[in-house]
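Q: What would this chain look like folded?
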Amino acid sequence: MSSNIPNHDFRTSGFVLRRTNYGEADRILNLITPMGKISAMAKGVRKEKSKLAGGVEMFTLTDFNIHQGKSDLAVITGAKMVKHYGGILKDFTKLELAGMVLKKINLAADSSDNPEYFEISKQCLAGLDKGINNGLVEGWFLMNLLKAMGEDINLYRDIDGERLDAGRRYDWSVADEGFCRRDGGLYGAEEIKMLRLMYSTDLNVVSRVKMVDEVVSKVLPLVRVFAKA
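A: My prediction, written as structure tokens:
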């Protein structure tokens, strides 16, 4: 349980990260909220007429009423759907990517109460639902997850300590974890600018950059290297 969770009844917005059936009609849910990750019991949610059912679907932003007692496992007493990102369910590639996002957030939030995890989840699900390029969503997610986990990516100086020059080309040195100057290298001003935007700017804003799809296709393999994905 997140150390930010109050020890009483409270209300919070959140997303379901994982659902586990329990007993005949209950489910244990992992939620990501602005306060961190919460494990909570949704009693009777699998019954046909459960009032909780609509609010505990995957890929849904929900307002939860939660009772937190002395146990680490809270109890959901109310759940009202705010926004269902149904567009994700219409495309298998989007569905697979959204599942990856929530799975990685679920793991990362075990070791940190960083409120950014909720915002990252929200921007990614909204972006996929809206139709933002899948590669951009994946790259933006991986970059921002690394940042939220405290991982630093050097996007301003090369391995020799020199500032990256817009007039030069670079490759990425896995051994040195940095850019190295190389004539004809894979990365120039456009690619490095895109990496910086993905690392520091809201997803919706980045999606409006000119020729974003073309540049993202060039940098996504490198982002996967950063994330060891």
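The CA atoms of residues 25 and 44 lie 5 Å apart.
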